[in-house]
Design brief:
This protein is an alpha+beta fold. About 20% of the residues lie in helices and about 35% in strands. It has one domain (about 10-105): RNA polymerase II/Efflux pump adaptor protein, barrel-sandwich hybrid domain (OB fold (Dihydrolipoamide Acetyltransferase, E2P), Beta Barrel), CATH 2.40.50.100. The chain has helices at about 30-35, 80-85, 90, 115-125, and strands spanning about 10, 15-20, 20-25, 40, 50, 55-60, 65-70, 75-80, 100-105. The protein is globular and about 35 Å long.
């Protein structure tokens, strides 16, 4: 299982990569493997400002639909539109081309409160 050390993680299996005050968010390798074949990613919150832990979208797999929770408060400034045509990219490249949204953080220090890769490994038993 791939858990990159440079990223931060949430208990809801999202990952966060911070660049300046913009956080790129996706779901972890563990999450995509648990969900199975992803068939649809829906994010209708672009240009909205949400609080941390609010639902920003859903991911639909063959067997289930799961809410996606925003790891940090801020304005959702971009959705990875490539996922509209190829949602399975989340399965094949969850930390690269399978990213989901970009968020302009209200408070970048919130990222510090997220889990490190080691803490996330403990959570999922890796």
């Amino acid at each position: 299982m791939n858990i990159p050390s440079e990223l931060k993680y949430t208990k809801d299996h999202e990952w966060v990569k911070l660049e300046g005050d913009v956080a790129t968010v996706g779901i972890t390798d563990f999450a995509q493997s648990e969900l199975g074949d992803i068939v649809y990613v829906e994010v209708e919150t672009v240009d909205e400002t949400l609080e941390a832990d609010e639902v920003f979208g859903t991911v639909e797999a063959v067997k289930t639909v799961s809410d996606l929770f925003l790891p940090v408060a801020g304005e959702i400034i971009e959705f990875n539109e490539a996922l509209e045509d190829e949602p399975e990219t989340v399965n094949t490249d969850p930390y690269g081309n399978g990213w989901m949204i970009k968020v302009k953080c209200s408070d970048v220090s919130q990222v510090d409160g997220l889990m490190s890769s080691d803490e996330y490994k403990e959570l999922v038993g890796a």
